Amino acid sequence: MSIEGHSTAPGANVIAEHYCCVAGCARWGSFGFSQSKTVETRWWCFEHYPYWDEIKNRSNSK
Ligand SMILES: [Zn+2]
What we know:
1 helix; binds zinc ion; two-stranded antiparallel sheet
């Protein structure tokens, strides 16, 4: 439920490489998003990251 840079959670699977999941894009996936803890986190580069609005909404609701 959060934007994960580097997971520091104990026991978490360390994902050594996660590039942008958009086909044809070879950039590093700096921005991860997971619908829930049971859903595998997907990664996008800055340009392709589709959840900017969600981030804004979350920060606005604080
Ligand atoms: Zn990309």
